């Protein structure tokens, strides 16, 4: 998804260290670990990981050492030493191993086999690693003080000696490792810059052979004394050595272990050949020559050899030039050169040089043959720059994302340009001593501002541009229609300064530039707590319908306001030129010398977050805002959407982090899908949007990637992310060669991943199938479409094709589909059936579909199986019944799958948690409540429980909620409660009567319970209960006794049994209170109340609905449950209104109102059903303004898009019918009444003037309100007062709402005529 494209980790200033194929060197306060062959960044180890208190200091690591045997890295900073160990199954994890604090600063170190030699300020110490109880500690072996500070220390291969050099003389001193005693002194003519011990391969004793390299590039061979010297004159031929200007050079020992490893592979492969090249390799191997490589300033490479080193006496040494040639690879002598084995081939080696840091692949055979092309450059690290050692404080980006500025400590920094083709960064400039900094025009220009002088400087060539400004607190750039980006600044009193970069004249090009102050004003309204720029990363996306914000203001109360500059009136070129000239000359300015423009700012939206103490804000031009607020648990990150309407608060995501958030930065895909980078001290998390779904609950944001490095980050163009860690930078993105790879080999980019998580779904996706089954004026229309999709999916899988979307868009539209539904139906019935479904389900169990998570594929199988069952029963069920049946089938099958241990694998998709659900959602229960096939649904529910429905099953299916009519209540519920009570009794082998007493007592079956106690001989309470239940509980004495027993059972926390005794004592109110408060089961309370009261209007049931169900629904924001409660309370106007308008639904306030949840498209489906179902519901729908209903439909369409059902969103806005009431018009006036005042005035209506629609809906509408008490629709009679006298000014209402109320009056009038209610007539009084 995101690959490391480039790492700017600074050029090494110290000798390099190696651990296997890893290259290490210190850089500032970190250790950089690279791949030795490719120079690719592997890891950065920060010193503060071992010492967290040093996280923000500016000290640097002085030296590092590597223990190859134990895979340890040791680093020193000042007097502190930290150690890391390489661990993990694949040796890819670095952990802090141990730490050590000394009393003096460390100058150099060397570690080997658990020993650590430490050169101190005027001293030398040796420590031993002790591993006891899995706790590594360093124990000091010895320490010695001296007059010098060691500069280099090296253990001998046998660990018997330590060689040390100093800065005060040219002497190499040897110390005993066991005691620290100085054993030998080796004087040198020049300062020693490097030394290496040579391990003898032919002798078992500790032969002290030490190579030292002096400052004049002379290598010396030492045993007990100096035995050989290899200088420039002895290495090269006489013509070069006799030159007047002798060339400079660097000399390096070619590690014999690395050479022997490569020679062994070469000789094994070329054993059959016999030529000079092979004999040369054999001589080096068999004779044991030590080779030395010298690089001259003109690029000449000289390889010298020393023979007979392992022979005795050492006077037999022979020195000669092995090879000499000129090559293009090395153009100058490097400071360091190392040999690294190439594990991939074994026949080649790698040369690592520094500085500059380069990696070469070397063919050893060609090198020994003196071929110039024997060295091939593999990788080259970027060149160093002056400010690379300073810590990164902040990144600043150009608006288009192709230029970036780096602000470092001490107010210095540099400018970089993003190369579009190579996706690399190119250094384009540096700056220093500035308080504010910004980047312009793809990084070609940059500007600085100094608070002391109040001067803005734009750095251009040949000379810089300057402009005096007021004291500003922030400076940023915004996209502009001009050639150059515009500059904006914000002052301490929140005035906004706008600076334009304009050509000095309009004649020809190129022309010099000039700065002009465009306007200087402030945001209207009260003073905000902060004003920040809107991140312009999405401005380059050319969507003409998107208007991007420029500024975001945050109030003390957490209200977000979004602003765009007011469009200026069109002016002639002459006027604009004079204005620029006046601004440049300072004329027309205010008292401070700055012009205040008459142009203002327009607020495009507000979001109330109710957050205070906001510390970090980042706003995207894609209408997303991230806020960081400190709380007691840590820091709260919230993401808000400013596009949301009044149907949502705008909160999309909330998470609490225990660690501090350092940085926030936005990016956007071409489809305006937002991506947020959240920087912490140790890592950067990337959050992206994801689809909303019916299948999983949770937020619509998730973490899609993590980068375990850095704390500051910024998005650049094309989805590249620049991460800063200390003084280093890492550029992540998509490799340039990724586009040329084949589809199966090409890595998915970040933008592609985010688009796949948010874009339109495939036709066979379960989300599409489910919504198609739920929606439609007639369910059969969408059912035929779902069947066709399933048939196409089965054909694709049968023919081993990748499933794709092959259904034309027009088929999703209801109007077009109805015409040809019969032909589709006939064709689908021929293919769709049990054999096809069975084969398809078996295929889905064995194969994983692309772009589906395991949870989604499980839902797909469920919906396919459910569609078959629905298709077989659709003739006996109505649409709402089929919707409930779909949900019920999915509920049981998914719970069964959640209990199964097997699960298909995920294919490059985010995992979604699948868990067992306790019950159907209230949405699914309400479909059954409004169904006219409840008897069939009750049978289907019982069959789903295998004919043994217990109370847990009835509660899970919502049976007490959706059995609507009292006839069904008394008949079906009575019959089913008896069956449920019997199943509760038979649920286990104990046959405990206490399990069913509550339900039987509610049914009035006291004698039946008494009979069950007769059979419970095993129960210890049998005798007591038999005696107690034999009494007559119609008498007040035994009712009181039952109530006393109920309170006693409450004290023993036997709540269900206590509720049963409350019923036995005829205290229904106490029984339902126990069900609600102690058992937490309001469905049980409702079932008992409806059975006992034998009514849907009983006082206890009404109390439950008003005091429990409605507060719960409002607290949870569950509009489905609230609508059901209002419907039962015969407030069907509120039942309809609450689906759309929560603010004006209730007459009395609710103590706690939770977050309004409009993220369910089925709300619109229920609203469209209920608004014309009864007269009272029609009254409620007419109290909703047309503008509000219009916004509600747009909100549901947005939800469809967030779910990936874009085609259904389009179908919704195409086919939604807005209710337009019949207007009050003058029948004598036939003129056109003019354009509509609101979106509702031009829409079709159930209650339109067309007779057919009007009669159809009027004939099917239920009259459920007292029409005679409703105000008359006739005009009021004159009251006899003075017509010229003005009364109180009427309350202004929305015109559309007034029209709806007028239409409601006409509707009432027609309803009155239907029920033959006479109107008021004054003649009746005479």
Notes on the protein architecture:
Residues 1239-1248 have a biased composition (Polar residues). InterPro entries: DmX-like/RAVE_component (IPR052208), Rav1p_C (IPR022033), WD40_repeat_dom_sf (IPR036322). This is RAVE complex protein Rav1 C-terminal domain-containing protein. Residues 596-1212 form the RAVE complex protein Rav1 C-terminal domain. It comes from Tetrapyrgos nigripes. The protein has 1326 residues and is α+β, with helices and mostly antiparallel strands. The chain is built from 35 helices and 56 strands. The strands form 14 sheets. A 4-stranded antiparallel sheet has the order 1-56-55-54, with no helix packed on it. It has a 4-stranded antiparallel sheet with strand order 2-3-4-5, with no helix packed on it.
């Amino acid at each position: 998804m995101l690959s490391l494209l480039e790492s700017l980790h600074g050029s090494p200033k110290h000798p390099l260290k190696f651990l296997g194929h890893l290259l290490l060197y210190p850089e500032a306060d970190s250790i950089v670990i690279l791949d030795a062959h490719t120079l690719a960044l592997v890891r950065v180890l920060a010193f503060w990981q071992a010492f967290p208190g040093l996280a923000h200091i500016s000290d640097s690591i002085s030296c590092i050492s590597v223990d190859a045997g134990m895979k340890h890295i040791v680093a020193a900073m000042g007097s502190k030493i930290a150690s890391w160990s390489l661990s993990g199954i694949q040796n890819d994890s670095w952990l802090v191993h141990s730490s050590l604090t000394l009393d003096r600063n460390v100058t150099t170190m060397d570690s080997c086999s658990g020993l650590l030699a430490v050169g101190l300020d005027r001293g030398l110490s040796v420590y031993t690693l002790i591993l006891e109880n899995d706790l590594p500690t360093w124990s000091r072996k010895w320490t010695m003080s001296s007059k010098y500070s060691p500069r280099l220390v090296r253990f001998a291969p046998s660990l018997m000696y330590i060689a040390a050099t100093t800065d005060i003389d040219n002497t190499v001193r040897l110390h005993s490792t066991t005691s620290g005693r100085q054993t030998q002194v080796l004087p040198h003519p020049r300062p020693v810059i490097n030394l290496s011990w040579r391990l003898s391969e032919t002798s078992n004793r500790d032969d002290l052979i030490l190579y030292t390299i002096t400052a004049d590039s002379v290598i010396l061979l030492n045993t007990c004394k100096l035995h050989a010297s290899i200088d420039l004159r002895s290495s090269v031929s006489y013509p070069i050595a006799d030159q007047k200007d002798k060339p400079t050079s660097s000399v390096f020992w070619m590690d014999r272990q690395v050479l022997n490893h490569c020679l062994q592979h070469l000789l094994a492969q070329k054993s059959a050949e016999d030529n000079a090249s092979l004999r040369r390799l054999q001589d080096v191997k068999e004779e044991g020559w030590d080779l030395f490589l010298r690089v001259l300033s003109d690029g000449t490479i000289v390889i010298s050899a020393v023979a007979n080193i392992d022979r005795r006496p050492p006077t037999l040494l022979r020195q000669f030039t092995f090879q000499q040639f000129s090559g293009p690879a090395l153009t100058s002598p490097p400071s360091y050169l190392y040999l690294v084995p190439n594990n991939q081939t074994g026949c080649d080696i790698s040369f690592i040089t520094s500085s500059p840091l380069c990696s070469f692949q070397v063919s050893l055979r060609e090198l020994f043959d003196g071929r110039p092309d024997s060295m091939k450059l593999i990788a080259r690290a970027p060149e160093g720059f002056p400010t690379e050692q300073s810590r990164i404080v902040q990144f600043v980006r150009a608006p288009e994302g192709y230029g970036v500025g780096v602000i470092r400590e001490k107010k210095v920094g540099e400018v970089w340009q993003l190369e579009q083709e190579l996706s690399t960064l190119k250094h384009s400039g540096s700056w220093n001593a500035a308080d504010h900094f910004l980047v312009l025009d793809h990084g070609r220009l940059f500007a600085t501002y100094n608070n002391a002088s109040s001067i803005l400087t734009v750095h251009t060539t040949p000379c810089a541009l300057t402009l005096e400004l007021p004291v500003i607190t922030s400076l940023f750039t915004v996209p502009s229609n001009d050639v150059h980006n515009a500059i904006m600044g914000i002052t301490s009193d929140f005035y906004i300064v706008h600076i334009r970069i304009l050509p000095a004249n309009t004649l020809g090009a190129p022309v010099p530039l000039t700065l002009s102050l465009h306007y200087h004003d402030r945001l209207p309204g009260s003073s905000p707590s902060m004003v920040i720029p809107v991140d312009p990363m999405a401005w380059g996306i050319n969507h003409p319908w998107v208007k991007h914000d420029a500024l975001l203001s945050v109030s003390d109360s957490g209200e977000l306001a979004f602003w765009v500059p007011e469009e200026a009136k069109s002016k002639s070129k002459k006027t604009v030129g004079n204005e620029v000239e006046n601004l440049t000359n300072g004329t027309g300015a205010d008292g401070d010398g700055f012009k205040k423009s008459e142009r203002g700012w327009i607020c495009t939206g507000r979001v109330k977050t109710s957050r205070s103490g906001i510390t970090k804000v980042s706003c995207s031009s894609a209408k997303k805002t991230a806020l960081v607020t400190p709380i007691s648990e840590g820091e709260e990150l919230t993401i808000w959407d400013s596009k949301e309407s009044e149907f949502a608060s705008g909160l999309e995501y909330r998470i609490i982090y225990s660690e501090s958030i350092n940085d926030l930065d936005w990016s956007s895909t071409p489809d305006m899908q937002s991506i947020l980078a959240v920087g912490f001290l140790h890592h950067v998390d990337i959050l992206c949007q994801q689809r909303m779904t019916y299948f999983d609950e949770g937020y619509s944001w998730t973490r899609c990637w993590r980068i375990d490095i850095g704390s500051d980050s910024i998005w650049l163009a094309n989805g590249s992310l620049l991460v800063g860690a200390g003084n280093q930078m890492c550029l992540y993105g998509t490799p340039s060669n990724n586009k040329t790879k084949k589809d199966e080999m090409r890595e998915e980019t970040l933008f592609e991943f985010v688009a796949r998580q948010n874009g339109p779904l495939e036709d066979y996706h379960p989300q599409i199938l489910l919504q198609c089954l739920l929606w439609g004026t007639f369910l059969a229309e969408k059912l035929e479409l779902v069947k066709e999709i399933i048939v196409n999916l089965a054909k694709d899988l049968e023919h081993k094709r990748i499933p794709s979307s092959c259904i034309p868009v027009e088929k999703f539209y209801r109007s077009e589909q109805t015409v040809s539904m019969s032909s589709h139906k006939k064709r689908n019935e021929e293919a769709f059936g049990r054999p096809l479904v069975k084969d398809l389900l078996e295929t889905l169990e064995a194969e994983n579909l692309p772009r589906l998570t395991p949870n989604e594929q499980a839902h797909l199988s469920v919906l396919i199986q459910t569609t078959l069952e629905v298709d077989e029963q659709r003739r006996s069920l109505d649409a709402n019944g089929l919707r409930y049946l779909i949900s019920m089938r999915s509920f049981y099958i998914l719970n069964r799958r959640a209990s199964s241990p097997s699960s298909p694998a995920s294919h490059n998709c985010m995992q979604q948690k699948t868990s067992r659900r306790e019950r159907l959602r209230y949405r699914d229960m309400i479909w059954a409540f409004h169904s006219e096939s409840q008897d069939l649904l009750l049978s289907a529910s019982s069959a789903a429980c295998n004919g043994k429905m217990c109370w847990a099953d009835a509660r899970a299916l919502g049976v007490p909620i959706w059995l609507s009519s009292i006839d069904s209540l008394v008949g079906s519920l009575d019959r089913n409660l008896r069956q449920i009570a019997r199943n509760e009794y038979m649920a286990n082998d104990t046959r405990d009567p206490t399990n069913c007493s509550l339900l039987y007592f509610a049914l009035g079956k006291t004698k039946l319970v008494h009979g069950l106690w007769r059979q419970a001989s095993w129960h210890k309470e049998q005798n007591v209960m038999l005696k107690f239940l034999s009494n007559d509980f119609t008498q007040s004495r035994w009712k009181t006794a039952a109530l006393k027993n109920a309170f006693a059972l409450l004290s023993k926390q036997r709540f269900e049994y206590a509720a049963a005794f409350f019923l036995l004592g005829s205290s229904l109110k106490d029984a339902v209170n126990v069900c609600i408060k102690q058992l937490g089961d309001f469905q049980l309370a409702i079932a008992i109340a409806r059975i006992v009261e034998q009514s849907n209007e009983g006082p206890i049931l009404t109390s439950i609905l008003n005091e429990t169900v409605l507060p719960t629904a409002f607290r949870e924001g569950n509009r489905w449950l609230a609508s059901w409660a209002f419907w039962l309370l015969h407030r069907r106007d509120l039942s309809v209104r609450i689906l759309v308008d929560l603010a004006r639904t209730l007459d009395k306030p609710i103590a706690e109102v939770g977050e309004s949840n409009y993220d369910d498209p089925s709300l619109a489906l229920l609203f469209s059903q209920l608004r014309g179902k009864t007269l009272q519901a029609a009254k409620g729908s007419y109290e909703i303004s047309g503008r509000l209903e219009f916004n509600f439909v747009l909100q549901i369409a947005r939800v469809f898009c967030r779910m990936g059902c874009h085609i259904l969103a389009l179908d919704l806005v195409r086919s939604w019918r807005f209710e337009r009431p019949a207007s009050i018009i003058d029948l004598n006036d036939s003129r056109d009444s003019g354009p509509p005042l609101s979106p509702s005035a031009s829409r079709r209506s159930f209650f339109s003037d067309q007779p057919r629609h009007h009669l159809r809906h009027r004939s099917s509408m239920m009259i459920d309100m007292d029409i005679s008490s409703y105000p008359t629709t006739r005009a009021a009679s004159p009251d006899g007062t003075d017509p010229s006298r003005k009364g109180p000014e009427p309350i202004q209402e929305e015109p559309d709402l007034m029209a709806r109320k007028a239409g409601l009056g006409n509707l009432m009038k027609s309803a009155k005529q239907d029920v033959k209610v006479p109107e008021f007539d004054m003649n009746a009084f005479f």
